[in-house]
Each structure stands twice: as structure tokens, then as C-alpha cells.
Amino acid sequence: MIIVMKPNVIEQDIKNVINLVEDHGLKTHLSTGDQITIIGVVGDKSKLSKCNIELMGGVEKIVPVTESYKLANKKFNMNSSIIKVRDVEIGGNKFVIMAGPCAIENEKQIIETAHAIKKSGASILRGGAYKPRTSPYSFQGLEEEGLKYMAKAREETGLPIVCEVTSLKSVETAYKYVDMFQIGARNMQNFYLLKEIGKTNTPVLLKRGLSATIDEWLNAAEYIMSEGNKNVVLCERGIRTFETATRNTLDISAIPIIKHKSHLPIIVDPCHATGKRAYVNPLSKASVAVGADGIMVEVHPNPAVALSDGPQSLPPDEFELLCNELKPFSNLVGKTL
Ligand code: PEP
Ligand code: MN
């Protein structure tokens, strides 16, 4: 439930309500807007059954929150969250572009890509060191060696880095290198993994599961946030449907729905959504139009020889074109690139 305080409520009234709720063993989350202040309550509400909170000083009303996710819920936080990855803000006025290869293949490949994407306007470098591949015989990633190359690319370009983690052990290793953890579609409901990264302060890019509903996705975010890590960014990357013309189906409606239900930023990955390079550009534009906070694009110096996801990766010149073409679109929606 949320406790809505009266306009012009005094500090002491807010404190009294928070103390009462916490003294009963529940947690509170304070959100202060221009006009109103709300106190979100997480925990067993029945413990408050004997308290007449409605009658307390400064309280306007009590509103139940029926959704099972609370901290990720817009009702708990009226202001859109801005998540900082080093000096890059996601969810603010900038349309953030994350780019890089599907997999880190060698030092030269990642360094070359990092310089190219930075020149074109990307502000975060992506690269997979732990690759959750469909076949066990496909390239599985360079693991820690790859993370070292990513850290070197950051040193050279200043770009923050985001890498996927797939196990508790990989979290332990990647924690020392990365600026943002990525939870891939296949692990969106790996609750042990979610809880583990929830105990860190490292920002998290949480991809939507292959067949996950929006409610399940927001509950996955709640798993991370309920452990203390509130720095979650969502990523729509396409869902499984009957359609075979694309690898997945980009659920473009998920972006306005998330904006309606949650305060968390959301970005779009048009590469995994389609599996085809040709559709990355138009769907990136669509993402800007529906209010996404950014995109994640796979870029490879030579996609024809990429060890994974070559067909959906852009070569640097196409990526540059994409960034240039996105500028007027983002200006139109009041965002800078
Ligand atoms: C990736 O980003 O390389 C990846 C494996 O994505 P997803 O988890 O969305 O399939
Ligand atoms: Mn990939």
C-alpha cells in the first residue's frame, strides 16, 4: 500500500508515519514530488491492522497497491528514476546508445569497436564475456580474459562497460571489472542470480525473458531491488511468438506500458529482437518514438566473421549512419543524443 500525505505536510508528520510503520516490522519507501509526498509500504500489511494511519497528522489517504512488485512500481515512486552508470545517466534527457560486439573475441576487436562506437555517439560499451549460447558447441566467451580487454577499452575511450553475468561465480569475477551487469533473457527468472546482484550497488541491465510477461519482468526487477540495489534499467529484446520472419518479435508496446507501470528506465535491443541487421535502423527509430530511454546495438568490425550474432550486428559505418539518423528523431521527443 501507499500512504499519500497532504500537500504542505510537515517533516515531523512524515517521520511519525515512517516510524510507526517500521516499528511494526515493515519497510518504507519515501517519494517526494513537487506537489505530494507518498510513503510506500512493503511487507505484511496485516501487522498494521490495529493502527489508524488514516487518522494520523498529515495523512491524506491510503491507497492499496495490488501489483506484487512494489519498489519497481510507479505508484511507489512518482518521479522517473535516473540510473547512473559512471557519468552516463539513463532515464534523463539523453537518449543513451549502448553498442559493441555480441562477444568479446580478442583485444584488437574490442578496442577497435570501442573507438568506432564512441566516435559515432555511443556512450556505453557492451561486450559479452560469458555467452549463454543455444548450442554447447558454440563459442562460449573469453570469460575473465575478455573482461580484462573490456576494462582496457574503457581505459582507452572512457566509455563505461556493460557485460552479461550468467552465474554466481561470474558475478564475483565481473564485479571487479564492469560498470553495469547485464542479466540476459535466459536468466531473467534466475532468482538466486537476481538476489546476488541485488546485494551489490552495480547498476543492472535486466533483459526481458524470452517468454516473460511484463508483470513477471517487473517482478524480476523487484527481486534485485528488494535486496537493496535500486539501480535497475529494463531492456526489451523481443519475445517468442509464432512469427518466424524475425528471430523474436519486438514488443514495442512494452515501452509505453512499462512507462505507465514503472519508474524504471527502459531501453530497446533491436538486434536480438529481429536477428536481422536490416531491421535495426527502423526499429531504433520506433524505439525513440515510443519513449525508450536508449537502445543497445550489436556492432562488429567485420560481422561476416563474428563468432556470434553476425547477421544482426552492424558494421561501424552502418552504426554511424544509424546514430546520425536518430538525432532528429530524438530531438523531436525532447531528448539529445
Ligand atoms: C546478448 O545481449 O548478447 C544476449 C545474449 O542477449 P539476450 O539475453 O537478450 O538473448
Ligand atoms: Mn548477441
Automatic annotation (TrEMBL):
<dbReference type="InterPro" id="IPR006218">
    <property type="entry name" value="DAHP1/KDSA"/>
</dbReference>
<dbReference type="Pfam" id="PF18152">
    <property type="entry name" value="DAHP_snth_FXD"/>
</dbReference>
<dbReference type="InterPro" id="IPR052899">
    <property type="entry name" value="Class-I_DAHP_synthase"/>
</dbReference>
<keyword id="KW-0808">Transferase</keyword>
<dbReference type="GO" id="GO:0009073">
    <property type="term" value="P:aromatic amino acid family biosynthetic process"/>
</dbReference>
<dbReference type="GO" id="GO:0016832">
    <property type="term" value="F:aldehyde-lyase activity"/>
</dbReference>
<dbReference type="InterPro" id="IPR041071">
    <property type="entry name" value="DAHP_snth_FXD"/>
</dbReference>
<dbReference type="InterPro" id="IPR006268">
    <property type="entry name" value="DAHP_syn_2"/>
</dbReference>
<dbReference type="Pfam" id="PF00793">
    <property type="entry name" value="DAHP_synth_1"/>
</dbReference>
<dbReference type="GO" id="GO:0003849">
    <property type="term" value="F:3-deoxy-7-phosphoheptulonate synthase activity"/>
</dbReference>
<feature type="domain" description="DAHP synthase ferredoxin-like">
    <location>
        <begin position="1"/>
        <end position="67"/>
    </location>
</feature>
<feature type="domain" description="DAHP synthetase I/KDSA">
    <location>
        <begin position="87"/>
        <end position="322"/>
    </location>
</feature>
<dbReference type="InterPro" id="IPR013785">
    <property type="entry name" value="Aldolase_TIM"/>
</dbReference>
<protein>
    <submittedName>
        <fullName>3-deoxy-7-phosphoheptulonate synthase</fullName>
        <ecNumber>2.5.1.54</ecNumber>
    </submittedName>
</protein>
